[in-house]
Amino acid sequence: MRGGLLVLLQLCAASVSTSPYSHFSTEDEEFHSLLSRGKRQETAEICDFGSDTDLVTCDWSNRNGTHMRWDAGAGSLSNWLGGPPKDASPNDDSQRGGYVYYETSFLPTPHTTKKGQHAYIESSTMGSTGPEGKCVGFSFSMSGLSATGLRVILKPRNSNADEDDDMERVLWSNKDPTGGQWRQADVLYTYNKEHQVVFEGIAKSTSDPLRRYRGHVAVDNVALKPGTDCRGHCTFEGGFCAWTNDEDDDFDWSLGRGSTNPSTGPAMDCTSYFHGGMEGGYGYIDSSYPRRPGDVARLSSPEMDATGVDTPLCLSFWTHMYGNGIGTLTILLMDVREGNERDIWTLSGEQGNAWYQAEVPVSSPNPFKIVIVGKVGKNIMGDIAVDDLAFRVGSCPTAPQIAAPMPGDCTFEVDECGWANVPSRERMDDIDWERVSGVTGAEGRPQLQTFDHTLSTDKGFYMTLARSSNVQRPASRAWFTSREFPGSANPHCVSFWFVLNEPFIGNSGPSLGALSVYTKVIEPDGNVIRKPVWKLYNHQGPEWHYAQALIQEEKVFTIFFEGIWGSSLANGLIGFDDITLFDGGCSTVPASATVHAGDCRFERDICSWINSTASNTFWKLATVASRPANLPDKTYNAPEGYIYFDLFNSGSSVVRLTSPHMAATEDRQLCFAFWFTAFGSGESAELHVVRVDNTTDDENRKV
User: Fold this and answer.
1) Rounded Cα–Cα distance for residues 342 and 332 (Å)
2) N or C: fewer beta carbons within 10 Å in the chain?
């Protein structure tokens, strides 16, 4: 069908008939890794772990003395033995390809130490990496309620890691599920002695009830490659890697091992600062003579591939900004095709005599470069240093928060970052959002979710929908709003992590409530337009889940989170954490949170539907004071939140409610679903659903 269509709800005098409807659903969008990768050198050592009939582990072996273990597996064996249903290869034989996995529901023997509850698989012993380092490339998958993490560890060969944890160095870690997909990762490191690389699979504590549920941490296609294969990564031990000093700036970035002026610059590189040792270098700008205030040095990355839709990157690095003459450190994203640049991270002034980790989301529809810009401050005590540049797939809140180009990213570890509950003079809600940790809980009460998402500890903070014995009832809501953002013709994406957990569900079914994300625009005439961009209802499980939504607003706008309690008053948790805003389009994640044209729960208004009856008679919103037979709504069992029409007190026999225009759907069908009830129907009322085809001037009606 070409063109668009409308849906009409029409009520007129006739008999009522019913027919079943079911809600449609779509599959979750897959996550695909688009991180640029260099060509493998002939010297790379690669292990794909064979196939289901010939599984191998190459030179990787389980650590001696540990009860938990990694096993070789394949997709064809996964329903029998465990592991993901396919390996990381993109071909049709992915069910037969091999991988190694740790079944996280497997329980250790009694009295096992905490370290012994994890599974370790180790490489063979390797010598010094040299100053260029070694690049560890691999694919990983993590799924299930009992799986909680994967780490890549450097283990010095002359240490007994079971007795001396301090000798081990964590090179990389992941705590988030991969959504049933394989993801790609690269890890660059340097070490000047004999050592091993270790993959550590981490399960939930044995005291956690979720530990007994199936889960896995899996690794595939492990490649030990030259350091130059980790494109964009740099430790500055052997130079600037593939990063280059620009020719059209005022001076160059330099390599350093330690400052020669105790009043500015770091005493040692980032790795030595945290782990000790003598090896290590960093990149820095030297602010001493002949530099002048305002001089700029630019360091550019190699060209990176476009990130594409739903595949942002996170650039992490360490920075040292010490001295009373510190200027400004800026991260630019240069669009190679268009030739333009934009700030994605900037920080000015002294930040203390220490190394701090910084993170920034990176998204570009075209090939791009990252440019690190150091600007000299007011005097010679203004050395700025950077170290350990790395990219990983996925969005991340800008850190520190003050470095973000727009105030919106937030981990809630320090405060609400400018987000706030709606002021009482403006509010259309009746409860608040609260910033809590697993230790304190809301108003001192224990929380169902004891760990936040950022730190994954009970000391981390996140936002949760408050409960109040004074004003709370079904459909009680709270709004949490951002500062204003400038409008743009280009799309943006907002990502966050959420939890909707209703651990005890009654016979009537899930009744936790809802979490929604809206944009709000105030027109010049004062008209307020609120547009839902993401909405999810009721129980989604006890874990943190990733979410994202598309923002398309050309006028100044704000974003607000809305939480609504259902009729489940005794238990449950609605919360969110780690908000990130980045440029570029994205699809809705999870797909079930997509807001379609015409979707409406009638919680506060009739959304984008229109009362289209010619007379003044129309569908009404139910209120506490005006509703038929004290009927509660279907969504939350609240006293309001639906529409009705009173035939007995109306002068019209027909009333219409018209949907917004909906785009034509040539490749798929739509299911229109709703709930209804009738009072005193008999043969006096009839409900019609009418589709109007707008391809011609004459209405093509289909009932």
Assistant:
1) 5
2) C
